[in-house]
Specification:
The chain is α+β, with helices and mostly antiparallel strands and 408 residues long. The protein is elongated and about 90 Å long. The strands form 2 sheets. Strands 1-2-3-4-5 form a 5-stranded mixed beta sheet, covered by helices on one side. A 3-stranded antiparallel beta sheet has the order 6-7-8, covered by helices on one side. Helix 3 packs across helix 7 and helix 9 packs antiparallel against helix 10.
Length: 408
């Protein structure tokens, strides 16, 4: 039979209330290997605190619950010393119902959910690649804002691009929220909501816009390199769609039998989207004719764009596209990825006076993201668009016109 714990200084509420208020916990008592339970005296009811070893010479603290200083313990919202002891052990090690979720197990569950719902598993892969081993082994219930903030800052200090850090943190928060939703009794705090935020303004100014004559040269070089690759680049340059969207186009998505041809562009799988929707995106007659000839004798359910070897473009592995594009970009004299085609198409539409909401819809993005990302180019290069809204400069006396049927 295990020995009953005794902590006279904190197990009794009368003794606890005699303690002066302070942030450091009182009476840290060993409740297991590498685990100690303490009591933090507050202005109102105190808090039970778990202190756990991280296995590397350090310690971590997290709140267990409210002490029964002024209310009777109910085992859930208010805890006495022994109830807090059991909850602290469960938070750290789990119970008969299963082990507590660690960062690594939560990440595996998140990756499985992404795969099952058809979303990009790269979100989970990115987090795993940038997570140190000590953090992978940490129970989610024991995570603290301090260590999460330290991890976030370390990513930036390692020279990782701020935009990549933001994507990594966003995926990490989604993973941790999913773990907390699945085990709310153990994971009662969510420090990542604050600790992994605050980087919304770290996006570097977008500078991937290339002029139209360079875009035309890129299309020509792409066709010269490979006809199938040239057609893919041509679609990307005109529509501004992502490579993953273009690769999912079907023959049925081409509407070229009229004077205003369109492509029913599939939506991306960004965010929580489970199903693919399609929206019409205008294309030129030239591109429509090329696509129609390329898809000749194919069924409507087959891919619209195929590689030169007859295989489909893989939306999950665009490396072959990026390598080919890097080669033609070097020939043109720029150092860009295929993303420059998307950004250039969006800015081209905005500068041509296409409404921002319609541009955002065609580009499969939000109006908020569009304004945040491309507002600089509109302010710098949109003078001609803004000039259309100026009052006409008509000399006085020259704007009076006699109306028929009325006296002059």
């Amino acid at each position: 039979m295990p020995r009953k714990l005794h902590a006279p200084r904190i197990e009794n509420r009368t003794n606890r209330l005699k303690l002066p208020r302070r942030r450091a916990p009182y009476g840290l008592t060993h409740i297991g290997v590498g685990l100690r339970l303490g009591y933090r005296r507050c202005k109102g009811a105190g808090r039970w605190v778990l202190e756990a070893s991280d296995g590397a010479g350090g310690e971590w603290q997290t709140r267990v619950g409210v002490a029964d200083d002024f209310e009777d313990a109910d085992g859930e919202h208010v805890l006495d010393f022994w109830q807090a002891t059991e909850k602290a052990r469960t938070m750290a090690r789990g119970s008969s119902s299963g082990a507590p979720a660690t960062w690594e197990s939560a990440l595996a569950d998140y990756e499985a959910d992404l795969k099952a719902s058809g979303r990009e598993i790269a979100n989970a892969t990115r987090v795993r690649h940038h997570t140190p081993p000590a953090l992978l082994a940490k129970p989610v219930a024991l995570l603290t804002a301090a260590e999460l903030r330290k991890w976030r800052n370390a990513l930036l200090a390692d020279g990782i691009k701020p935009a990549t850090v933001v994507r990594t943190l966003t995926a990490a928060k989604a993973m941790l929220n999913a773990a907390a939703d699945a085990d709310p009794k153990r994971i009662t705090e969510r420090p990542w909501r604050i600790a992994l935020g605050g980087l919304a303004n770290t996006y570097a100014p977008l500078d991937r816009i290339v002029p139209d004559h360079i875009v035309q040269r890129l299309i020509e070089e792409a066709y010269a390199r490979d006809a199938a690759f040239g057609l893919f680049v041509h679609v990307a340059a005109e529509t501004g769609a992502r490579t993953s969207q273009i690769a999912r186009l079907l023959v049925a998505d081409l509407k070229a039998d009229h004077s205003a041809p369109t492509l029913l562009m599939p939506s991306s799988r960004k965010g929580r989207r489970r199903q693919i929707s399609r929206r019409p995106v205008p294309i030129t007659l030239d591109l429509a004719g090329r696509l129609k000839r390329a898809a000749y004798e194919r069924t409507t359910s087959e891919p619209l764009l195929l590689r030169s070897n007859g295989k489909s473009w893989n939306p999950r592995d665009p490396s072959h596209l990026q390598r080919s594009f890097a080669a033609i970009a070097a020939r043109v004299g720029i150092s860009e990825t295929m993303l420059c085609l998307r950004h250039s198409a969006i800015v081209r539409a905005l500068l041509a006076g296409v409404p921002a909401k319609l541009t955002a819809s065609n580009a499969d993005t939000s109006l908020v993201m569009l304004e945040r990302t491309y507002a600089r180019f509109i302010s710098e290069h949109g003078g001609e668009v803004a000039r259309k809204g100026l009052l006409p400069s008509t000399p006085p006396g020259e704007n009076i016109v006699n109306l028929s049927g009325r006296r002059p």
